[in-house]
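Risk mitigation, structural track. In case the binding assays with fructose -6-phosphate fail to produce interpretable data, a predicted complex structure has been prepared as a fallback.
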Amino acid sequence: MRLIITNSYEEMSVAAAKIFAGQIYLKPDSVLGMATGSTPLGLYKKLIAVHETIGLDFSEIISFNLDEYIGLEPENPQSYHYFMHKNFFDRINIKSENVYIPDGMAADMVAEGTRYDALIESRGGIDLQVLGIGQNAHIGFNEPDIKFEATTHRVRLDEETIQANARFFTDEQEVPRYAISMGIKNIMLAKKVVLLANGKNKAEAICKAVCGGVSPAAPASILQLHRDVTVIVDHDAAALLPQAVKAPC
Ligand code: F6R
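Fallback model:
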């Protein structure tokens, strides 16, 4: 794991955007793994800016999102389909046929998971995956559990996740209780991973991810076993990391 501690959310987003822009420049047909939520918004803004100013080209890029709420139509402003199009895809030159997001309206979630995993494989696997992290150390919507779920699957969201995501809805009752998410094996198969976190409310999760024991009780901890992970955090999210871990940063 490489750890980069930045002074601000802005710096974190710039550092992540450099990794993504470099990947796209060197391999224009890269397969990118995308996340939703507040954390990667700055990264997406920076990449849009690089696209607009110096023409970073997404025309051959393929993207797979980590997850989607179950029961929300793609047109629903709370859906991750809507979020990704509004905040990223509609503002770059990615081809719509190269954008993949799990179908939260599928009648059979087991079949949808199988279909999604096969699509990732058919496109050659993910080259670079961005991850946010939940306060309970979830990645994607892989919630703390007694085992790591390998592939794309239906999840019941934890109460903590529902509370955290309620900020995007007018009423907590509106937050879907279920989602479909890539599994841990899907994430671990990505060739490179960038994990982003900012804010004090992520400090405990980052501590578990970076230097806790590897356990499905803290799903992000599995990343300690990945061969190419860059963790980019601001000082607040790094606050609980032991000095020895922070020292080289
Ligand atoms: C979203 C996702 C989640 C979020 C996490 C952090 O696609 O997979 O794991 O990354 O819940 O969310 P924010 O960034 O809103 O704090």
